[in-house]
Design brief:
It contains 5 helices and 4 strands, in the order H-H-E-E-H-H-H-E-E. About 30% of the residues lie in helices and about 10% in strands.
């Protein structure tokens, strides 16, 4: 069987539970008809043949991680709203409603201001131990 490790891995990466799962159970990560485009018989991403394991670097072999993102950006509100009312107004929504509102507000930032507000973004990976998964288109 062809070696599925096609990337240089550090020792800490090789020790990851998800990497070990892929290496020890390659039969769980087989190229199927869903992964093949056209009549090539090859994975549309990693180019492995139908019926063989995907390469370790293939984006169809993935894991879900939990992240925290914080952003600082301007939002227009009525001038008579207090800090407490602004927070109440946002947090009184459903989680989906809040996420949609934030997504909309971020989309309205003018391109020339993106760099300025981008300096106030933080990103933290909270948990990366979900286990290896295989996408099914």
């Amino acid at each position: 069987m062809k070696n599925i490790i096609d990337v240089d891995l550090r020792e800490d990466q090789l020790a990851l539970k998800e990497v070990q799962d892929v290496l020890q159970n390659p039969d769980k990560f087989i190229v199927t008809k869903q992964h093949v485009k056209g009549g090539t018989g090859l994975c549309s991403v990693c180019k492995q043949q139908f019926g063989t394991p995907h390469l370790l670097s293939c984006s169809l072999v993935f894991k879900n991680v939990m992240v925290r993102v914080t952003a600082q950006y301007p939002v227009e509100t009525p001038c008579h709203w207090t800090k407490e009312f602004i927070e109440y107004h946002k947090l009184d929504s459903t989680p989906q409603g809040l996420l949609e509102a934030v997504r909309y507000e971020l989309s309205t930032i003018l391109p020339d201001k993106l760099a300025e507000y981008g300096q106030h973004l933080t990103f933290e990976c909270l948990d990366d131990q979900s286990g290896a998964l295989l996408k099914h288109h």
